[in-house]
Amino acid sequence: MARGIFSIAQTCPRCEGAGRVIDKPCRKCDGAGRAEKTSKIKLKIPPWVDTGARLRSTGNGEAGVRGGSVGDLFVVLHVKPHPLFQREGDDLIYEMPISFVQAALGADVEVPSLNGKAVIHIPPGHRPAPCFG
To answer: Each residue of 42-76: pLDDT tens digit?
Structure first.
């Protein structure tokens, strides 16, 4: 009857696979070769983004271990709701009640926009949306 032999390979917990141990590591990095620091970066956020969109900033992530290359920073966006406009996909929706006279005879109505105010022309004989409530 033959018996098998197990062998387990694992990284050395002391040198973490580097093959050498640093006798006097610096206090900043504790021998890891990288230290934590805070920095500011600028990101251009496109106008079409919505909640959950990920922006990538190349070379602004964590430093590599023992001189390895720097990683990328990914920023996940959370878009705050607007007090006037609602979003439906790429469209902005603004609801504004108009009077029966404006709908029947037509009118030019001033509405808010992202760039100030805009004038919308309502043609005569416009049918109102059904009201359910």
So the answer is: 999 988 888 999 999 998 888 877 677 889 999 99
Q: Six-digit token pair at 25?
A: 């590591």
The token pair that represents 15 in the structure block = 């040198």
Residues in Cβ contact with 122 at an 8 Å cutoff, skipping those fewer than 6 apart: 98, 102, 103, 106, 107, 108, 109
122 forms beta bridges with: 107
How does the average pLDDT of the chain come out, rounded?
Answer: 83
Query: Would you give the DSSP letter of residue 67?
Result: G
And the tokens for 20? 């050498």
Backbone angles phi, psi at 100, to 5 degrees: -60, -40
d(CA 9, CA 17): 11
Check: CB of residue 114 under 8 Å from CB of residue 92.
yes
Q: Give the torsion sign (CA, 100, 101, 105, 106).
A: negative
Task: Give me 123's structure tokens.
Answer: 């043609």
DSSP secondary structure code for residue 73 in this structure: E
User: Which tens digits make up the pLDDT trace of 13-28?
Assistant: 777 777 777 778 777 7
